[in-house]
Amino acid sequence: MMSYTSVQQWLDKSPMSAGKRKIIQSAVKLFAQFGYQGTTTAMIAQDAGLSNATMFKHFKSKEELLQKIVTPLISELVPLFSEQFLKDVKNHLVSIYDLMDYMIRDRYQFMNQNCQIVLIIINQFLTNEDVKQTIVKLLGPKEEQLQQIIQELLTTDQTTDSNLTASVIIQLFAGQMLISFLKRYKLNVVVDNEQEVAQIIANVQKVIRKNA
């Protein structure tokens, strides 16, 4: 199975007509910018350089268009990314600190490369129960594997807080990444990438380290 590093790469490789690809690209951009409710089919057609009639030849409604974007992304892209991520994680099993450093840098880059689709997924996760359940079902087993890796490192490192669990560390990691992402892409705060990553790493490692 081919591995992709971005949604755009996956979209470029997907077998579809040029018109359909343009519509999906415009929809992703506008859904991320204005939200699903704030985007009309007319806006999507105009951004894609197509007529409304042409757009409706490919997608019968805005709801169908959203489904065609979110469903393949969750069912195909998310497992691909997470599987590759876990393989890479296993290559960084030096210490819990090195692992968190790698995870933060890797996911920070991934989220920036795919910021538009990440925004859509976050919005749909919060408002669409079907999407939420699909994500939980697909990522649940991957999270369990990651917990096992982290827990193993915790039990062999005497510098970490003995009260910490892998689940708490994953929640801490995810929370810090989400806050940073929303600050940049929802609140439009300008950040220096290196400084932002360094701050996230410092925040996470401070909690992990014993008597920090």
Report on the architecture of this protein:
This protein is an all-alpha fold and 212 residues long. The chain has a single domain, classed as Orthogonal Bundle (Tetracycline Repressor, domain 2), CATH 1.10.357.10. Helix content is 76%, strand content 0%. It contains 10 helices and no strands. It has helices at 7-13, 18-34, 41-48, 52-58, 62-90, 96-113, 115-127, 129-155, 166-185, 193-208. α2 packs across α7 (115-127). The protein is elongated.
Tell me, briefly, the overall form: elongated
For the terminal residues, how far apart are their CA atoms?
Answer: 44 Å
CATH topology: Tetracycline Repressor, domain 2
Q: What percent of residues adopt helix (DSSP H or I)?
A: over 70%
Number of domains: 1
Number of strands: 0
The radius of gyration is 19 Å
CATH architecture: Orthogonal Bundle
Described by strand count, sense and barrel closure, the largest sheet is: none
Strand residue content: under 5%
The helix-and-strand class reads mainly alpha
Keywords: DNA-binding
InterPro entries: DNA-bd_HTH_TetR-type_CS, Homeodomain-like_sf, HTH-type_Tx_Regulator, HTH_TetR
DNA-binding region: 40-59
Organism: Bombilactobacillus folatiphilus
Can you describe this structure in just a few lines?
This is TetR/AcrR family transcriptional regulator. By secondary structure, this protein is mainly alpha-helical. The chain is built from 10 helices and no strands.
Topology:
Blueprint: H1 7-13, H2 18-34, H3 41-48, H4 52-58, H5 62-90, H6 96-113, H7 115-127, H8 129-155, H9 166-185, H10 193-208
Helix pairs in contact: 2-3, 2-7, 5-8, 6-10, 7-8, 8-9, 9-10
Pfam family, one: TetR_N
Protein name: TetR/AcrR family transcriptional regulator
Organism: Bombilactobacillus folatiphilus
